[in-house]
Amino acid sequence: xxxxxxxxxxxxxxxxxxxxxxxxxxxxxxxxxxxxxxxxxxxxxxxxxxxx
Length: 52
Fold this sequence. Notes:
Layout: H1 5-40
């Protein structure tokens, strides 16, 4: 069985490029998510009329 490098090499290169793209995008999305969560955690709610 002989490997056809004209088909195998481009598929491997495309897979590596796709993997790097997904990793880079995930890191950017994770950073944006952390920034959004930090902005979202403002002052806690206050209920001055509630008595326990």
